[in-house]
Amino acid sequence: MHWMKWGTITLLLLALVGCAGLDTATEVDEPLELTLDVAESGSEIEIRFGIIRHEDVPEETLVGEWQLRDAEGDSRAASEDMLVNPESLELDGPAFIVMTWSAELDPGDYTLDWGIEGYDPVQARFSLINQDGRVILGSVSYP
Predict the structure, then answer these.
(1) Residues 136, 43, 65, 54: is their CA dihedral positive or negative?
(2) What number of other Cβ atoms are within 10 A of residue 38's Cβ?
(3) Has residue 49 been placed in a domain?
(4) What's the CATH number where 50 sits?
(5) Contact at 8 Å (CB) between 12 and 19?
(6) Along the chain (143 residues), what's the average pLDDT of each consecutive run of 10 residues?
(7) Which of 6, 12, 60, 121 is deepest in the core (most CB within 10 A)?
(8) What is the Cα–Cα distance from 54 to 23, expressed in whole angstroms?
Protein backbone atom coordinates (compact mmCIF):
# COMPACT_ATOMS: atom_id res chain seq x y z
CA MET A 1 0.00 0.00 0.00
CA HIS A 2 2.90 2.31 0.81
CA TRP A 3 4.39 1.82 -2.68
CA MET A 4 1.05 2.79 -4.31
CA LYS A 5 1.05 6.12 -2.44
CA TRP A 6 4.63 6.94 -3.60
CA GLY A 7 3.83 5.71 -7.11
CA THR A 8 0.83 8.02 -7.31
CA ILE A 9 2.88 10.98 -6.04
CA THR A 10 5.64 10.21 -8.56
CA LEU A 11 3.14 10.08 -11.44
CA LEU A 12 1.61 13.41 -10.35
CA LEU A 13 5.07 15.02 -10.18
CA LEU A 14 5.97 13.68 -13.63
CA ALA A 15 2.71 15.05 -15.04
CA LEU A 16 3.37 18.47 -13.49
CA VAL A 17 6.95 18.58 -14.80
CA GLY A 18 5.72 17.57 -18.26
CA CYS A 19 3.11 20.34 -18.28
CA ALA A 20 5.57 22.97 -17.08
CA GLY A 21 7.26 22.98 -20.49
CA LEU A 22 4.05 23.80 -22.34
CA ASP A 23 3.63 27.46 -23.29
CA THR A 24 0.20 28.34 -24.60
CA ALA A 25 0.74 32.12 -24.63
CA THR A 26 1.34 33.66 -28.04
CA GLU A 27 4.00 36.32 -28.12
CA VAL A 28 4.64 38.77 -30.93
CA ASP A 29 8.32 38.34 -31.70
CA GLU A 30 8.34 40.46 -34.84
CA PRO A 31 8.55 44.25 -34.62
CA LEU A 32 6.30 44.69 -37.67
CA GLU A 33 3.04 43.06 -38.70
CA LEU A 34 1.75 43.68 -42.22
CA THR A 35 -1.90 44.56 -42.89
CA LEU A 36 -4.14 44.94 -45.95
CA ASP A 37 -7.46 46.65 -46.44
CA VAL A 38 -9.51 46.34 -49.65
CA ALA A 39 -12.46 48.71 -50.02
CA GLU A 40 -14.67 50.48 -52.53
CA SER A 41 -13.93 54.11 -53.31
CA GLY A 42 -16.42 55.50 -55.80
CA SER A 43 -15.86 53.67 -59.09
CA GLU A 44 -12.47 52.37 -57.96
CA ILE A 45 -11.15 49.72 -55.63
CA GLU A 46 -8.85 51.12 -52.96
CA ILE A 47 -6.11 49.03 -51.38
CA ARG A 48 -4.34 50.23 -48.26
CA PHE A 49 -1.02 48.61 -47.43
CA GLY A 50 -0.25 48.96 -43.74
CA ILE A 51 2.02 48.01 -40.89
CA ILE A 52 1.21 47.50 -37.25
CA ARG A 53 4.34 48.68 -35.50
CA HIS A 54 5.32 46.93 -32.27
CA GLU A 55 7.99 48.05 -29.78
CA ASP A 56 11.40 47.30 -31.30
CA VAL A 57 11.05 48.91 -34.71
CA PRO A 58 13.92 48.38 -37.13
CA GLU A 59 15.75 51.61 -37.91
CA GLU A 60 16.75 50.64 -41.43
CA THR A 61 14.62 51.29 -44.50
CA LEU A 62 12.87 48.09 -45.61
CA VAL A 63 11.95 47.01 -49.11
CA GLY A 64 8.38 45.87 -49.62
CA GLU A 65 6.61 44.35 -52.57
CA TRP A 66 3.05 43.61 -53.59
CA GLN A 67 1.31 41.92 -56.48
CA LEU A 68 -2.29 41.85 -57.65
CA ARG A 69 -3.27 38.78 -59.70
CA ASP A 70 -6.51 37.88 -61.45
CA ALA A 71 -8.28 34.50 -61.27
CA GLU A 72 -6.00 33.07 -63.98
CA GLY A 73 -2.90 34.09 -62.00
CA ASP A 74 -1.92 36.87 -64.41
CA SER A 75 -0.34 39.92 -62.80
CA ARG A 76 -2.59 42.99 -63.02
CA ALA A 77 -0.40 45.37 -60.99
CA ALA A 78 2.72 45.11 -58.84
CA SER A 79 5.54 46.94 -57.11
CA GLU A 80 8.80 45.23 -56.23
CA ASP A 81 10.79 48.11 -54.73
CA MET A 82 8.50 49.88 -52.28
CA LEU A 83 10.78 51.58 -49.73
CA VAL A 84 9.38 51.54 -46.20
CA ASN A 85 10.87 53.54 -43.32
CA PRO A 86 8.97 52.30 -40.22
CA GLU A 87 10.03 55.26 -38.07
CA SER A 88 8.49 57.84 -40.41
CA LEU A 89 5.06 56.26 -40.93
CA GLU A 90 1.92 58.18 -39.99
CA LEU A 91 -0.52 56.47 -37.65
CA ASP A 92 -4.00 55.84 -39.10
CA GLY A 93 -6.09 53.82 -36.64
CA PRO A 94 -4.33 50.70 -35.38
CA ALA A 95 -1.98 50.59 -38.38
CA PHE A 96 0.54 52.82 -40.04
CA ILE A 97 -0.40 53.24 -43.70
CA VAL A 98 2.53 52.69 -46.03
CA MET A 99 0.71 53.33 -49.28
CA THR A 100 -2.76 53.55 -50.80
CA TRP A 101 -3.33 52.27 -54.34
CA SER A 102 -6.56 52.53 -56.30
CA ALA A 103 -7.70 51.54 -59.76
CA GLU A 104 -10.72 50.61 -61.81
CA LEU A 105 -10.73 46.84 -62.29
CA ASP A 106 -12.91 44.50 -64.32
CA PRO A 107 -15.38 42.19 -62.56
CA GLY A 108 -13.74 38.94 -61.41
CA ASP A 109 -11.73 37.30 -58.64
CA TYR A 110 -8.41 38.73 -57.48
CA THR A 111 -5.58 37.80 -55.13
CA LEU A 112 -3.35 40.43 -53.55
CA ASP A 113 -0.04 39.59 -51.85
CA TRP A 114 1.93 42.11 -49.74
CA GLY A 115 5.26 41.42 -48.10
CA ILE A 116 8.49 42.76 -46.70
CA GLU A 117 11.52 40.48 -46.65
CA GLY A 118 11.99 38.93 -43.21
CA TYR A 119 8.35 39.40 -42.10
CA ASP A 120 5.24 37.27 -42.50
CA PRO A 121 3.46 38.24 -45.75
CA VAL A 122 -0.29 38.82 -45.92
CA GLN A 123 -2.84 38.05 -48.60
CA ALA A 124 -6.31 39.26 -49.51
CA ARG A 125 -8.72 37.58 -51.89
CA PHE A 126 -11.59 39.60 -53.24
CA SER A 127 -14.20 39.55 -55.94
CA LEU A 128 -15.65 42.37 -57.97
CA ILE A 129 -19.13 42.07 -59.41
CA ASN A 130 -21.10 44.04 -61.97
CA GLN A 131 -24.22 45.54 -60.42
CA ASP A 132 -26.40 47.69 -62.66
CA GLY A 133 -23.48 48.51 -64.94
CA ARG A 134 -21.19 49.43 -62.05
CA VAL A 135 -18.31 47.33 -60.70
CA ILE A 136 -18.56 46.91 -56.91
CA LEU A 137 -16.75 44.94 -54.26
CA GLY A 138 -18.44 41.56 -53.78
CA SER A 139 -16.51 39.76 -51.06
CA VAL A 140 -13.15 40.06 -49.32
CA SER A 141 -11.27 37.41 -47.30
CA TYR A 142 -7.92 37.52 -45.57
CA PRO A 143 -6.76 33.89 -45.42
Answers:
(1) negative
(2) 20
(3) yes
(4) 2.60.40.1930
(5) no
(6) 35 32 37 80 86 68 92 94 77 76 93 88 92 88 88
(7) 121
(8) 22
Return d(Cα 93, Cα 137) in angstroms, integer: 22
Full-model pTM: 0.70
25 three-class SS: coil
Please give the Cα distance from 90 to 69 (Å, whole number).
28
138 near 118, Cβ under 8 Å? no
Our CA angle for 101, 36, 46, nearest 5°, is 30
HSE-up of residue 119 (Cα within 13 Å, Cβ side):
25
Q: How many domains does the chain have?
A: 1
H or E stretch at 79:
strand 75-84
Please say whether the beta carbons of 75 and 68 come within 8 A: yes
